[in-house]
Protein backbone atom coordinates (compact mmCIF):
# COMPACT_ATOMS: atom_id res chain seq x y z
CA UNK A 1 0.00 0.00 0.00
CA UNK A 2 1.29 3.42 -0.92
CA UNK A 3 0.26 6.75 0.61
CA UNK A 4 0.08 10.01 -1.32
CA UNK A 5 2.43 12.66 0.05
CA UNK A 6 -0.45 14.95 1.05
CA UNK A 7 -2.09 12.14 3.04
CA UNK A 8 1.15 11.30 4.85
CA UNK A 9 1.71 14.96 5.70
CA UNK A 10 -1.83 15.31 7.09
CA UNK A 11 -1.49 12.12 9.13
CA UNK A 12 1.85 13.25 10.58
CA UNK A 13 0.33 16.61 11.58
CA UNK A 14 -2.55 14.86 13.33
CA UNK A 15 -0.21 12.48 15.13
CA UNK A 16 1.98 15.38 16.25
CA UNK A 17 -1.10 17.15 17.66
CA UNK A 18 -2.18 13.93 19.39
CA UNK A 19 1.21 13.40 21.01
CA UNK A 20 1.43 17.04 22.11
CA UNK A 21 -2.02 16.85 23.69
CA UNK A 22 -3.40 19.58 21.42
CA UNK A 23 -5.52 17.48 19.05
CA UNK A 24 -8.84 17.83 20.88
CA UNK A 25 -8.41 21.59 21.27
CA UNK A 26 -7.74 21.96 17.55
CA UNK A 27 -10.79 19.86 16.70
CA UNK A 28 -12.94 21.92 19.05
CA UNK A 29 -11.62 25.16 17.55
CA UNK A 30 -12.48 24.16 13.99
CA UNK A 31 -15.83 22.56 14.69
CA UNK A 32 -17.16 24.66 17.58
CA UNK A 33 -20.61 25.84 16.52
CA UNK A 34 -20.47 23.94 13.23
CA UNK A 35 -21.14 20.48 14.59
CA UNK A 36 -23.53 19.61 17.38
CA UNK A 37 -21.76 18.77 20.65
CA UNK A 38 -22.91 15.14 20.43
CA UNK A 39 -21.31 14.71 16.99
CA UNK A 40 -18.07 16.27 18.27
CA UNK A 41 -18.02 13.74 21.14
CA UNK A 42 -18.52 10.94 18.63
CA UNK A 43 -15.56 12.17 16.55
CA UNK A 44 -13.33 12.40 19.62
CA UNK A 45 -14.28 8.87 20.65
CA UNK A 46 -13.50 7.58 17.16
CA UNK A 47 -10.06 9.22 17.31
CA UNK A 48 -9.36 7.55 20.65
CA UNK A 49 -10.33 4.16 19.25
CA UNK A 50 -8.23 4.70 16.10
CA UNK A 51 -5.22 5.74 18.17
CA UNK A 52 -5.60 2.61 20.28
CA UNK A 53 -5.43 0.52 17.10
CA UNK A 54 -2.10 2.15 16.30
CA UNK A 55 -0.79 1.53 19.84
CA UNK A 56 0.09 5.20 20.30
Question: How would you characterize the overall build of this protein?
Answer:
It is a single chain. It contains three helices and no strands. By secondary structure, it is mostly helical. It has one domain (5-53). It starts with a helix and ends with a helix. The mean pLDDT is 81.
- Residue windows where pLDDT falls under 50 for at least 5 positions: none
Provide the succession of SSEs.
HHH
Treating each run of at least 4 consecutive H or I residues as one helix, how many helices?
Answer: 3
> Average pLDDT value?
81
- How many discrete structural domains? 1
Broad structural category:
mainly alpha
Name the helicity range.
over 70%
The major sheet is characterized as: none
Task: Jot down its keywords.
56 residues, globular
State the gist of this model.
The protein is an all-alpha fold. Helix content is 75%, strand content 0%.
Write the topology of this structure:
Blueprint: H1 5-20, H2 23-31, H3 37-53
Amino acid sequence: MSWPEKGVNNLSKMLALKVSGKLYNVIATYFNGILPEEKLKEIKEEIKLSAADLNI
